[in-house]
Amino acid sequence: MPSSSSIAIDARDVGLRFDTADGYVEALKGVNLTVNSGEFVSLIGPSGCGKTTFLRVVAALEEPTSGQIMVNGMSPDEARRARAYGYVFQAAGLYPWRTIFRNVCLPLEVMRFGREERAERARKAIEMVGLGGFENRFPWQLSGGMQQRASIARALCFDAEILLMDEPFGALDEIVRDRLNEHLLSLWRRTGKTVAFVTHSIPEAVYLSTKIVVMSSRPGRITDVIESPLGRDRPLEIRDTSVFLEVAQRVRAGLRSSHDD
């Protein structure tokens, strides 16, 4: 059993109901999940199953109606104020009138970092995601994949211990997605950060993760947690191995059974 100091996200019987004009919508029900520091955890499930809602609960963007969740031993709101996590959304969300450098600097400006420290942190994050030399370009001058890398750099610039990623590569073509998966895995190995990653792609979940969390249709529940047998070094070719395919099949079976429930 990991010590509390090594637990990044600890959800216990978390539930969330939305009150709508048509009555209550139960988005999450009885979610129990422990994410240890340094893990790469993917959340996968059918559309509308609560994957993004759970990530928003972790980020204090939604408040659970039942249960408890702790982030680095704090409440989500305390973790937000302590800058414990960076958030990467589905769309890059870059301001078109700002250069890549100034987009990456934005959270540092909000946090009132000094000019020199902002510049140093932004350049380091930009180099980390492989965008060195593109600092003075505007978002519209970059490809979709490069824009998402800039979004990741923006989330990394204040060096949060946890990276929350809400299906950041979902809109990209397969070739670009493969390249960014490789880059993200390399980034995770180098930084040792904890990553919680939402995806609809079985191969992406299996390739990236140390732990794969399968969720059911609404109300969102965890139906399976799969500890990956794959090593930390994972070339793309690992997707053709029998071990990879066995894990993918278990994920697929879990998704099918969740639809049948």
Question: What report would you give on this structure?
Answer:
- The chain is an alpha/beta fold.
- The protein has 2 domains: 4-84 and 162-260, Rossmann fold (3-Layer(aba) Sandwich), CATH 3.40.50.300; 97-159, no CATH class.
- It is built from 8 helices and 9 strands.
- It has helices at 51-58, 76-81, 100-110, 115-128, 144-156, 174-191, 202-208, 242-260, and strands at 7-20, 23-36, 40-44, 66-71, 85-88, 162-166, 194-199, 211-215, 222-227.
- A 6-stranded mixed β-sheet has the order 5-6-7-3-8-9, sandwiched between helices. Strands 2-1-4 form a 3-stranded antiparallel β-sheet.
- Helix 3 (100-110) runs parallel beside helix 5 and helix 4 (115-128) crosses helix 5.
- The chain is globular.
- It starts with 6 loop residues before the first strand and ends with a helix.
Q: Order the strands across the largest sheet as they lie in space.
A: 5-6-7-3-8-9
The count of helical stretches stands at: 8
Total domains? 2
Reported for the largest beta sheet, the result is: 6 strands, mixed
User: Which topology of the largest domain does CATH recognise?
Assistant: Rossmann fold
Query: Which range does the strand content fall in?
Result: 15-25%
Helix-strand topology string: EEEHEHEHHHEHEHEEH
> Structural class from helices and strands?
alpha/beta
- How far do the termini sit from each other? 31 Å
* Mean pLDDT level: 91
Q: How many strands appear in the DSSP assignment?
A: 9
- CATH C-level class of the largest domain: Alpha Beta
Overall shape: globular
Rg value: 18 Å
Can you lay out the helices and strands and say which pair or pack?
Elements: E1 7-20, E2 23-36, E3 40-44, H1 51-58, E4 66-71, H2 76-81, E5 85-88, H3 100-110, H4 115-128, H5 144-156, E6 162-166, H6 174-191, E7 194-199, H7 202-208, E8 211-215, E9 222-227, H8 242-260
Parallel strand pairs: 3-7, 3-8, 5-6, 6-7
Antiparallel strand pairs: 1-2, 1-4, 8-9
Helix pairs in contact: 3-4, 3-5, 4-5, 7-8
